[in-house]
Amino acid sequence: MNRNSGALAIALLSPAILLFVALTIYPLIRVFALSLFATDYGFEDATYVGLENYSDLLAHRFFRTAAWNTLVFAILATVSEVGIGLILALMVNGKLPGSRFVVPALLMPYVLSTMVVTAIWRAWFHYDFGYLNNLLRSVDLPAVEWLFDPDIAMLSLVLVDTWQTAPLTFLIILAGLQSVPGEIYEAADVDGAGPRHVFFGITLPLLMPYLFLAALLRSVDAFKIFDKVFALTGGGPGQATETLSMYVYRLGFKFYDVGAASAAAIIMVAISGLLALIYAFKLAGNKS
Amino acid sequence: MIQKRRDTVRIALAYLTTAIFLMPILWMISTSLRPPIDYVSNSISLIPSQVTLEHYRELIRGDLLGKALNSAIVAAGTTILALGAAFPAAYALVRIRFPAKLDLVFLMFVLLVKLTPPISLAIPLYQVLRTLGLLDALLGLIIVYQVYALPFAIWMLLGFVRDVPVEYEEAALVDGASLMRRLRSIVLPVMTPGLIATSVFLVILSWNEFAYALLFIQSPDNFTLPTFIATLITEDETFWGKLSAVGLMASLPILLMVGFVQKGLTRGFGGGIK
User: Residue of A145, B85, B184, B226 with fewest CB within 10 Å of its CB?
Assistant: First the structure.
């Protein structure tokens, strides 16, 4: 249908293309250009410095710490979110009285706004009156400096992120579990396969595309993390939870070092481009 | 027998985990109803010793409703603009044959935008908004939110357009129905559930967005709910009751919407795999 319809295609796509040009293509070119200059917001007295911003960044301890923290956060968050999502899905899949209420209840944290989530957890993490430390004290365990101990602050962020988004991985993995035809299990049952066998031999391999999708979605999002860090730790204590997004924000909007912030932003775009490629190959692979 | 016992354990664990997952939300509800004196304690009870509505009253006397209205305007504007641009695009990408796989190139680009960290576009977007005179304006937010909303909407609508049987449209075409006519009387009606599910996601996304709202809105009058909440978090964290009440009130519209279209949402999540 509509074989010779170039004009029609352009007409239908033009609103989207217009928005993309104004909001992403032009800004991306602009960020790249800015990354080659030493400049603040004026741009009038900008000096061309070539790739100096990049080499400065890569040599700078704070940037490397932010990159390292981002990687650590992304790995910890992805692993714990996919792991907990899988456990939740396995528990809920199958006969579960009241599952009509359990599934929506489990989804609630995901629907809450991140600012609401951080508000709750700021209170839970409070050293003196926070709910978590109250729980610990009630069973005679020592209280924890959830957000102010440099060794723990990152784990606290992971905990909050996991609480909020494990419901999403749960939903994806549950969809995967429910797409496994029941006959396969019946056949395995007839063959006398044990539950461990069934899980590792049948369920897990069939779930792989779903686990992969969940992991990819979560790692991409974890890589961008900004708002939780901003509102829970502000990147602290010290540099302990400073991520790349926080770093770009600070450089660009607090110190007005627009050139360096742009270079860091371009590095982030490059990394997400790489993730996009993996994603695309995976999607293409699923189709064939 | 063993199978049955295993099932009982699994079900019990499922309930327990759900309860643990819900505790922070129960805590929020309970704290929003507690008098301030109550939460400076070491109690782990989630039941308030005394119930008060003072936090809610205080918020409504303040400007909570104004912030909620800002959020609603931004959410509605973002959703309408994104659907208006994404629906024709998705329709074209599914129904029209593109030369040289240009459609795939376009989709790859959409994907790249979807994965790009929003903060990395913030500096030039700041300049774009300043040039347009839309810094510190809700309309400015509606426009920059397309960075998130448009790729998402295109990607999600693709699947729903694919589900509209092409035969219906071909039959209408033989009868001489114009494109507008076909869209209005065939494609849109069949896609209604998909459009609703997509809208719900777009509303949630813009209702909850924080980074751009923080960077591009300066005057408190124009704050959306997340930026308003952020000011409460950083100023003084002992406003727990007020904070919980805001959190709950900001979440209710979204929770209601999600409950309303739950089935469509699950489908939407599954759509990414197909």
Answer: B184
B7 and B121 belong to one structural domain: no
Residues B256, B233: one domain? yes
| CB contacts, 8 Å: A107 with chain B | 258
Total of domains in chain A: 2
Domain coverage including residue B13: 1-52
- DSSP SS3 for A286: helix
Tell me if chain B has a CB within 8 Å of the CB of A244.
Answer: yes
Kindly state the DSSP code that residue A141 receives in the 8-state scheme: P
Contact A185, A97 (CB under 8 A): no
Predicted model pTM: 0.89
Pairwise CB contact (< 8 Å): A230 & B214: yes
**Closest CB from A9, A20, A96 relative to B11:** A96
In whole angstroms, give the CA distance from residue A37 to residue B43. 56
B175 CB-near residues (< 8 Å, 6+ apart): none
d(CA A102, CA B209): 27
Q: Assign A47 to helix, strand or coil.
A: strand
One domain for residues B15 and B140: no
Say what the ipTM of the complex is.
0.87
From first to last of the 288 residues of chain A, give the pLDDT tens digit: 444 578 888 899 999 999 999 999 999 999 999 999 887 765 667 788 888 889 988 988 899 999 999 999 999 999 999 999 999 999 998 888 888 888 888 988 998 999 999 999 999 998 888 899 999 999 999 999 999 999 999 999 999 999 999 999 999 999 899 888 777 777 887 787 787 888 888 888 989 989 998 998 899 899 999 999 999 998 889 899 999 999 999 999 988 889 999 999 999 999 988 887 887 777 666 654
Domain count, chain B: 2
Considering the domain architecture, whether residues B60 and B32 belong to the same structural domain is answered as no
Same structural domain for residues B115 and B129? yes
> In sequence order, what are the beta bridge partners of A38?
A47
* Whether A14 and A120 share a structural domain: no
Are both A76 and A179 inside the same structural domain?
Answer: yes
CB B78 within 8 A of CB B144: no
Contact call for residues A113 and B251 (beta carbons, < 8 A): yes
Which chain A residues are within 8 Å of B25, Cβ to Cβ?
108-109, 112, 120
- A12 φψ region: left (φ > 0), alpha (ψ -120 to 50), beta (else): alpha
Cβ partners under 8 Å of residue B240, min gap 6: A123, B31, B36, B39
State how far the Cα of A182 lies from the Cα of A202, in Å rounded to an integer.
11
Cα-based angle A81, B203, A226 (whole degrees, multiple of 5): 45
Placement of tokens 């790009």 in the chain: B116
